[in-house]
Structure formats: C-alpha cells, structure tokens
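User: Hi! I'm a student and our assignment asks us to look at how structure tokens line up with a sequence. Could you show me two examples?

Assistant: Happy to help. In each example below, the sequence comes first and the structure tokens follow. Example one:
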Amino acid sequence: MRRIIFTAVALTLSSGVLADAQVEKLVDRVVKGYGGKIFLQLDKVNFRDKHLRFVTGQSYSSKAIDANHYNADLVVDFEKHAKDLKFVGGQKENIYIQHRLFDGKNSYMINHNDKSYSEDKDLDYSRIDRDIGYRLDLLLARQLHEQPEKATYLGKASYYGKDMDRVEFQPEGFPKMKLIINDNGHIVNMQRSHWRTEEGFSFHYSEHKKVNGVTFAEQLYVTNGGKPDSASMKRTLIVKQGKWPDFAVPKSYGREVPSESYNEMTIQKLAEGIYHVGKGWGFTLFVDAGDHYWGIGGYQEIKDRLAEVYKTTGNNKPLKYQIVTHHHLDHLGGMQEVFDLGATFVTVAENMKAIDGIVEQDIPDNRFMIVKDETELAGGLIKVFDFSNDHSGHNLVTLVPHANIFVGEDMYLSRKATGSPKGWKSLNKLAKRIEDQGVTVKYFVAAHSARILTDKDFEFSLNNHGAETKCPEDWYICQYK
C-alpha cells in the first residue's frame, strides 16, 4: 500500500496579507486548472460514481472485511444550491436504495417502493449526499473558488516526491479539510478527520481529464487511518444533458410521518429501576441490579447517559456490566468510557478483539464475561441470547423478563412519532427465538430511538412485511453496467 508523507518545506509567511495573497493566487490556478471560464459558468453537474468499499467496522463478521458495491448518481445545481442523490448499495440480488433531495431549503427522503416521502430536518446541503460530494474533486474546487476566505495557506508539502501547495479549508457547513494542489491547479489529495482514526480519511484524486471543457479526476482511492476504505471502479461527469432533475418530490407521492430528531437528552423510567436514556442516535437501557447497574447500548457518551440516571434517581451506583451486542463501530463508540468506569464487557468471544481494538489500554481477561448462545444473568434479572441475522453474524438480544422488556441494537425500531413499522422475513425468526425463552414481551427498546414500541406494534410488523426493494427502472445506476 502506498504511504503518503507530508514534508514541510521552509516557507515563511510574514503576514496575513501575504497568506491571503497566496490563497488568491492558488485559487486562480485552481479555476484555470478546472476549466477557467467554462468551469465558472457551470450551473449544474451530474456525477456518477461506481465504487467498491472495504468495510471492517460494519462488516458481517468481526473477523472479516466485507467488499460492498455502491452506485451513486449525484446532481448538483449551483444556482439553486440544491442536490439530488440516487444511491444503490449491495449486490444485485439484495440491494437497498436511497433517494435524497435538498431543494435549496429543505431535505427529503423519497421512498419509491411505497411512493412516499418524508422531510429530514437533520440533513442539509452539506450532509444530504452521503459524502459522495467529497468523491468529486471538481466540487471541492468550486467551493474553494466560492469561499476563498475560508482557506488558509499552509505552505508546501511533499506528495509522492513532488512539492505541492497545501491549504486548510472549511467551507460553510462542512468539516475542516486539507487540500493538496499540484502545479496544474488540480486537487490531488483531500484529508479530513474521522472520529475513530487519528489520520482520518485521505482522498487520492488522479488521472485528471477534461469533459466538455471542465476537469475532474477519473480515478479515486480513499484510505481511512492509512487502511483501504474505497476505490472507484467507474466515474462519469456530465455537464450537458437534455433533462435535469427538477429537485422536487413527485406530486403523486404521499407524505410519511416525519422522523424524530431527539436532539435533547431524554430519560424514560420503564419500570422500577429501569431507565432508557439518550439523545440523537445513541440510547442505553440501564437496569438496577441492587448495588450496581447493567447497561445495554454502547454508543458514545455513555457517561453522560449514566449521569442522567444519577440525576434522576439521586443515587450513584456504578455501572458494573455492559452488554456489548455486536462489533459494529458505532455500537462500540462508548467502550472506552465503559472501560474507564471499571465495568465488565459482556459479549461473545468472537467480538473480544474488536472491543480490545477500540479501547486504548489492554483489557485483562477478567474484564470480559463471555456469552455462548444464551444465558441468564444478574440472578435471573436478565436473559441474553445470541441472534445471528443478515446484519451481523453475532448480535446479543437482552430480555428483562419481570418488566416484559426486549432490548436490541439494529434489530427492531422506529424513529417516527406514530405508526407501526413494517416487518421483514427475519423478524419472524426473531419472534421464534423470543418465544423459546418463555418470556412475554410487551415493550421493545432500541439503541437508535427514544420511542418504545409495543407488542401490538410487533404483531403488526410480523404480519405486514415491507415490499421487496426494487430499483426504479429509469435510474441509470440500476443497470449495473
């Protein structure tokens, strides 16, 4: 694997004025490199990117790397400040699709299977495109031209043996980035942070070519933390076409119940000594086991959620056990906090290495409690069983029998204020496993939502499965060419 080494070259900027002059000069070079007047007059672009992504933190097995296929079709309207993203993931036999739209003011998720749409207030221009925009260097060049005041010149850097200009850049609404620009005015590298890896993402743009007078990189390779993240297989840039999207929801589609944001910390007492706490996409169920708590739900900020329990109850019993459901990175986000709190990790043997990889210190063996298939814990207060499904090879389900509670991560949930979610085939398999435990479940608790679903919701889901996902016939990226 190629390593990237940045070597600072002696360059003294005597004042902010000189730095600004360097940025201005560099932006002029970038504009010229990407097509000059034609580049500046672009009102729309259509970027199609077929790429292979190497998945570790979200793979089926903690011991393997998945290779997932993605096809993206992104249209950007510079005049309207709008984006339209059509996205297809997975294999041809088992795909999932998304259609995301930002019309210049509002963001929408469009469901073509159900012919419906919902507004998503958590998404804006910078986040609507699933980070596909970062894959097109031309968009970065356009932002640099439009917001040069957001750039800071960093001097020269050695990139594959050549001295090139480097700038720090943070356009409005986007994270901070560092760009490397060659003598032709082409962006050849972009770096931005990632919550887990110290080095973060590094985008390597190469094989720049012109299409109808404007330039883009025909090849892209991305690393995260110095390890392979994704590689483009086919990249197409279209600047002239007969029909562009109208950046509007189809008029015949019905409006879905909007999803909740849960921006503020919430705590719900579900039974005596049982609290569901969290905000955003991270929630934990805490179960009082006498002189300590058990936790289920491993997102970041576990300490904050535990503090909310202390605030509500007036006690400060320690978190002694944390049930780690599966190995996906988002659900391991709070494991450093769990370690710092002195708690024991309750998990399957296959996921020990993934947990150890998240925590900075070496975890001694006595800080692990290993579950094999199914078991009772906390003197029968809690039951746990391992449920293999299409999302993860191992996923621990927790039952709290006396309170009729089910707790799962990435299993069964809804973030909508009302209505029961539609089910899927493997949900019936889950229902059978619950039945085998001899536990009557009335409440379904999730790590991704504050909403507590009921047994009536579950019954609806079991009897009303969602329609099979089909790629719209008029989507170019559905042709798998």
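Example two works the same way, sequence first and then tokens:
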Amino acid sequence: MTNMNQYFILYSHVYITKGKYRSLIIDTKSRKYYKIPNDLYHFLTVKRNTTLNDILTEYDEDDVKIINEYYEFLLANSFGTFVANIENFPIKSYVWDSPYKITNSIIDINSINIENNLAVISQLNDVNCKFLQIRTFEKIDVSFFFSQLIKNISDTDIIYVEVLLKYDVLLDYNLLSTVIDNQDRILTVYIHSTPDHFFNSMNKNNYHNIHHVLTEVTSEKCCGSIAPSNFSITPDHIHESKMFNTCLNRKIAIDVLGNIRKCPSLAESYGNINNTLLNSVINLANFKKYDTINKNTILICKDCEFREICTDCRAYLEDPTDLLSKPLKCGYDLINGVWRNWEENILKIDAINHYGMNK
C-alpha cells in the first residue's frame, strides 16, 4: 500500500456504529450497510489520528496482512480515502434538530369517523407537521375518504401523505391513480391485507405509487415490527437516533376514537380531538417523555450494531414492566448476528400474551 505515511478518513456520507459483538459501516449515499469487525472500528476511530505506517508497526506479520485487507476493503467500496493532513478533516458532529414542533403524525380512521378525524389535519398544520400517515383497518368509502382528505390538506403546509387502505376487490384504482397524480402531497398508497391470489393474477394493476402488501393489518397492534426492511439509512435518521427516539420523537397520533396519543398503540391518552387542542398537548412533560429514549439507553439495543439505522417501539416490549426493554417484535439474535422469527421465541410468550397477540 502506497499511503503508509497518511491518515485514513471516512467520507462524510459514511458512518460507523460499534456494537458489542461487531460493528456496522453505513453508506448513506448507496443506502447500504456492511458488518465489520470491531477491530476495524477501532482503526477508524481510536487510530484515526495515526498514520497507517505507525498502526502497522504495532502488529506482527499476520495481523499486518489482515489490517491491509481492511483498508483495501474500505478503498474498494469508496468509504473513504487517505489524507496527508488529518487536521484539515475534523470529526463530524451529530447534532440534530428540526424547526417543526411535530415532524410526523398518524391518524387512524374507520367507516364512521372519516370526516371527524380528518378535520384535525388543520391542527396538525398549526404544529408544523410535515409528514402524515392515515390508516384504516377496515373497508371504507374510498371516494368519500379522499374527498375529505383533499379538502382538509388543501390549505396546509403538509409535505407528504401516506395512506394505508384495506384491500377491497371493488377498489377503484382509476380513482386512486387520479388522486395521486393530481395531489402532489399524497405520494404513496399502500393496500394492506391483499390476498395471495391477487399477486398471481395477470390482471393486477401497476399504477404508480400504489403498492400491495400481503401483511394483514387488523388493528394498531400490527405496528412495531423491527426488521431490516424498516431500516432508515439516511444522515438525518442517524443523527436523530443518537439523541432521540426515532419512532416517537416529535410524533403525535389520533386513534380511531379520536383520542390523542403519542402512538395509537400506546396506552396513554392526552385528551380527545373533540375537546382538546393538539397545541395544548405537545409541550406536556408526560407527552414528551418518550422523545429522548434513544437506542443507547434501551436494553440489548444499546449493544446492537444496527441501532442507529433502526426504528423502535415503546408500545410492545419484551418486558412490559420496563420502559427501557427491548422491542417485543425484534427477532434479531445479537450474539449470533442473525434474524429470527420473534413470534417463535419462547422467551417472548408471556409478553405476547400480555398484549393479547396470541393467535
């Protein structure tokens, strides 16, 4: 290697997280991550201000070969580069903030409360909310729903709306497509509980931004799944994760009954939209108590290499009596580094029964 008297630095879009058994290198540009040994994390952090030559002099011939392979791996994947003056490249800071009082929200609706629950959207605009997810667990009048949604968001600053609808064989896809095409803020519609035969049909639609999923979503208890498919590989998420809870920080939710919650799955209610303003809730200490529960404070998660790209769930816990317990619906085997089906873990049976999730 020709950079013996230089220092290795990671590019600004590359992050590393140290776990108990292994570390993770995260490329936010390609949205990919790679498991790496903790030794390599050590070289990239503790030995950051040491030249490659000085690092190698500390090890024997066999170790030197391995260390050189580490740096070849880093260079081959464009994770960083060698530099002559390390002083010109300060360590990145991990400060996170947002100008918005509430960054994201959930509204659950059913067939009888569409108009009432969607009317709260104007209040979400008052607290600067930019991301809105609307969910229904039953079949609804989709035409009426979208007419109410469009009416309520038309004069707001909400940027993104995601809609989860229950599969219906009579669903009007032309209507969905028209709404998406004509309303920039309604970017994505997910059709949950889609039957198997739909995916085998030659007539299934391919409309832009309409996605079908097999997962049966029957209530708020279906939320809280921890899986690689839910990872968020962005600088904003990583920075927020170091300080805050990436599921609940600056979130507000309205359940199907109009109750104001941090999340529809959490037990605490802070009033009802029929008699309580959202603005009167968001600064309550009891409402904000979840915001700062980051992964570095959660049992087991604090030792996990995925913690800075992972989401979280405080509603369903392995130990329902401990607010800092690992999420119930996480099946990651930290010691062996493999994902397993959390529902088949016999150690979770009591918690599954506690939350009424037993089949």
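Here is something you could point out in your write-up. The CA atoms of residues 68 and 188 lie 46 Å apart.
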